Amino acid sequence: MTNQRGAVPHNAPVTVVGLGPMGLALAEALLDRGHPTTVWNRTPAKADGVVTKGAHRVESVAEAVSASPVVIICLKDYETMYGVLGSAADVLPGRVLVNLNSGTPSEAITAAGWAAKNGVAYLDGAIMVPPPLVGHPDSAFLYSGSEEVFSEHRETLASMGAPRFLGADPGLAVLHNTALLGMMYATMNGFMHAAALVGSANVPAVEFADLAINWFMPTVVDSTLLAQAADLDAARYPGDLGTMQMNLNALEHIVRTCVEQGVHADQARHLASIAEQALDAGHRDENYLAVFEVFKKAS
Fold first, then answer.
1. Does this UniProt record's set of keywords contain Cell membrane (predicted)?
2. In terms of residue numbers, what domain contains 147?
3. Lower CB count within 10 Å: N or C terminus of the chain?
4. Are 83 and 109 in contact (CB under 8 A)?
């Protein structure tokens, strides 16, 4: 397993439990980089493709866990993980478990406690790319939990993508994953709504994308957020270049335009309602970033 503390052999053996599209991509990436790879899935036939590429298929979870010092879990959720690994309790002690399920921070923290009780070194993780990008050196994988385990097995983790350690709190990886996915959906909805709005005047989405994605996002949105992120941390929202009231006026114009053009207006109304909450909280003369104060507090 480990030659000496902190030195894991190159191309160390790895087990992958769970062979959905992402689990298969993980197994293939590990195989491509020379790791002896053992696989297990509830439906054995799902392993056929990676077996032809050199993976070793086993019949039981206990065999899978026993086969490698590092076990990658890629299942539906934490409850599924407990159910699957329950039959392998006797062989879990001394293993490294890298959990790439999805869920919530509290579930990740509970899983870390469960692992400790079972004598398992534990990392919680999140995959930030779709299956086709697994294995690319710049594909982000987020990890939290034991920094010692992360450092010791970093080379193995790098076979799947670019590993980034976020901290000792086991819930940090899934928290970042949820935050980034929320941002992704909000951004995609923003673009699709904008494309629908200009589409009401027969502007093709592909034409609009050139302006919106190639110019507006990097030049206006991205640069603004990067420049002003420090203001969020400092709760500093000077309104000399535009106040919350001015931004609410713009949002109301968006709502009215949607109605005029016959385009779904609920998203614009929701944005306006959030700005109104910021006004009610006393941020009338501050800039739009003061909405951050609304987001920080549960309604």
1. no
2. 14-167
3. C
4. no
The Cα–Cα gap between 77 and 262 comes to 41
CA torsion sign, 46 to 52 to 53 to 59?
Answer: positive
For 40, phi and psi rounded to 5 degrees? -145, 140
Domain check: are 142 and 187 in the same one? Answer: no
Residues listed for the chain:
299
Same structural domain, 106 and 201? no
Residue 210: give its domain's CATH number.
1.10.1040.10
How far apart CA 259 and CA 271 sit, in angstroms, is 15
Q: How far apart are CA 241 and CA 15, in angstroms?
A: 56
The answer on 233 and 131 residing in a single domain is no
3-state SS string over 236-276?
Answer: CCCCCCCCHHHHHHHHHHHHHHHHHHCCCCHHHHHHHHHHH
At 200, give phi and psi (nearest 5°): -65, -15
Report the alpha-carbon distance of residue 246 to residue 248 in Å, rounded: 5
Q: Are residues 107 and 242 in the same domain?
A: no
pLDDT tens, 174-233?
999 999 999 999 999 999 999 999 999 999 999 999 999 999 999 999 999 999 999 999
- What is the model's pLDDT at position 164? 98
pTM: 0.90
Q: Under a CB-based contact definition with an 8 Å cutoff, are residues 137 and 112 in contact?
A: no
